């Protein structure tokens, strides 16, 4: 009989072998199968996919961890956060979830790290979930890839297009299994998005001409008063690669309610606002239906309102309108005057798809308006929606649920539904739109070289200076 050390080595060897076949496999129409229990042995935690959680805030506790922990093959064993209070709360939260699930109060003793690099150094960990602020996505994903860990990461992929390209290339090089949190692609809980894209790709609305994307903007506000840094927060590490700036509560996150919408979402130092926050979801679906998920627009222009000086701390875009054109001739309009969702318009009709009356989370801008959208899936003619996709027609990748798809692909070595290149392209389209908003003029984009044509000012916005020792520039691998 093998001892525990040998069993653990067998498990890690299997995961490494399975994942090594990931690069270049699209498996677009294959439904990943669960590896039988005989591969992992009994349901002891040591025989499961060992997972570390990086960032334990609102998204981790309301979405990422609950979805991952539904899967018997997953075992969350560690958590890292720069806020010691959240770190302690996260440990208790995970342990209670497992105690309630198993009936064993001591089922797991979650390891805690105030520096995620120490979590990545733990050789027992097979995979990580990255649920951090936007400016802390690309770097830990790259470092996880270098450490040989599989990665589930919240959208958007990066702050800049160049940072995202570096990350995507590193993940491809290291051949780890990567999944972006673009959960609208999966059948659970919103099968209407895949259904819409299949209908569009198979010509049910004729030749696709235009796509309308509805996204709200953010309001001005936020308290700019300088405050002392809480003793429980490593604020320098929280700022990461972005410039050093004084602490105030509305710049970071709530110190009392983990479920409050954090202020960093409304600051350009840490992200681009709703154009990437929700644009990453909707433009990803637009690309899926347009068959442009591995490229990007060729022309784009936009305009937006930004908070005036003296209106508060927050400075991301408010109302906006962006128009883009793709090489296949399809045009895209993105803006707040469109209903929250995606409308595909063709020569023979149109289809609209959204999440319905849960268009955005309750604390997000536009939540009240989205709650009125009771219909999540409708068309110019209801017969379009009932059309049967024939066996010889285009069948898109079917994922049961985004986190489950990631875990299955770790086991079978197949490509995930939202792999790193798809993630880079959906994010880059959003960042191109943001650049157009900032500059207020038409831009010409080369999606192969990922650069603007004949526009030095726009190309200067492809990257940002990174504050040492943080940032993707400092990752070796």
Automatic annotation (TrEMBL):
Record's Gene3D superfamilies?
Answer: Dihydrodipicolinate Reductase, domain 2, NAD(P)-binding Rossmann-like Domain
Please, which domain of life does this record's source organism belong to?
Bacteria
Domain Gfo/Idh/MocA-like oxidoreductase N-terminal: from-to ranges = 50-181
List the GO molecular function terms. nucleotide binding
Q: Where is the Gfo/Idh/MocA-like oxidoreductase bacterial type C-terminal domain?
A: 225-352, 398-470
Locate the coiled-coil region(s) and give their ranges.
Answer: none
What InterPro entries does the entry give? Gfo/Idh/MocA-like_OxRdtase_N, Gfo/Idh/MocA_oxidrdct_glycsds, Gfo/Idh/MocA_OxRdtase_bact_C, NAD(P)-bd_dom_sf, TAT_signal
Signal sequence: where? none
Q: What is this protein called?
A: Gfo/Idh/MocA family oxidoreductase
* Annotated source species: Dyadobacter flavalbus
């Amino acid at each position: 009989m093998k001892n525990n050390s040998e069993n653990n080595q067998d498990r890690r060897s299997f995961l490494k072998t399975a994942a090594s076949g990931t690069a270049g496999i699209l498996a677009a129409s294959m439904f990943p199968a669960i590896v039988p229990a005989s591969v992992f042995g009994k349901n002891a935690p040591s025989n499961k996919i060992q997972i570390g959680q990086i960032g334990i805030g609102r998204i981790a506790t309301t979405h990422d961890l609950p979805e991952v922990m539904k899967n018997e093959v997953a075992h969350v064993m560690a958590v890292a956060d720069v806020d010691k209070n959240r770190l302690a709360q996260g440990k208790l939260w995970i342990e209670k979830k497992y105690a309630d699930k198993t009936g064993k109060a001591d089922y797991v003793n979650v390891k805690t790290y105030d520096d995620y690099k120490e979590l990545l150094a733990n050789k027992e960990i097979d995979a990580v979930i990255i649920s951090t602020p936007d400016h802390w996505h690309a770097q830990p994903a790259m470092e996880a890839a270098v450490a040989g860990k599989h990665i589930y990461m919240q959208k958007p992929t990066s702050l800049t297009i160049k940072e995202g390209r570096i990350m995507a290339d590193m993940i491809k090089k290291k051949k780890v299994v990567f999944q972006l949190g673009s959960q609208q692609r999966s059948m659970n809980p919103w099968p209407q998005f895949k259904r819409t894209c299949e209908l569009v790709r198979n010509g049910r609305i004729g030749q696709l001409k235009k796509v309308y994307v509805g996204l709200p903007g953010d309001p001005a506000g936020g308290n700019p008063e300088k405050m002392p840094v809480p003793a429980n927060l490593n604020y320098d590490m929280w700022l990461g690669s972005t410039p050093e700036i004084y602490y105030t509560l509305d710049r970071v996150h709530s110190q009392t309610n983990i479920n409050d919408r954090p202020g960093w979402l409304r600051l350009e130092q840490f992200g681009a606002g709703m154009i990437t926050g929700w644009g990453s979801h909707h433009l990803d679906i637009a690309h899926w239906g347009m068959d442009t998920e591995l490229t990007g627009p060729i022309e784009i222009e936009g305009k937006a309102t930004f908070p005036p000086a003296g209106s508060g701390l927050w400075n991301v875009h408010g109302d906006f309108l962006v128009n883009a054109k793709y090489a296949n001739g399809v045009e895209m309009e993105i803006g707040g005057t469109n209903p929250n969702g995606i409308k595909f318009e063709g020569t023979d009709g149109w289809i609209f798809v959204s999440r319905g009356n849960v268009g955005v989370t309750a604390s997000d801008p536009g939540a009240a308006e989205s709650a009125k959208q009771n219909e999540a899936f409708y068309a110019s003619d209801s017969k379009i929606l009932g059309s049967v996709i024939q066996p010889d027609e285009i069948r898109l990748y079917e994922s049961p649920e985004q986190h489950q798809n990631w875990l299955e692909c770790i086991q079978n070595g197949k490509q995930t539904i939202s792999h790193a290149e798809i993630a880079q392209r959906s994010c880059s389209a959003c960042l191109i739109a943001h650049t157009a908003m900032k500059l207020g003029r038409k831009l010409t984009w080369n999606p192969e070289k990922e650069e603007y044509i004949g526009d030095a000012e726009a190309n200067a916005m492809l990257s940002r200076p990174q504050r040492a020792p943080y940032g993707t520039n400092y990752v070796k691998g």
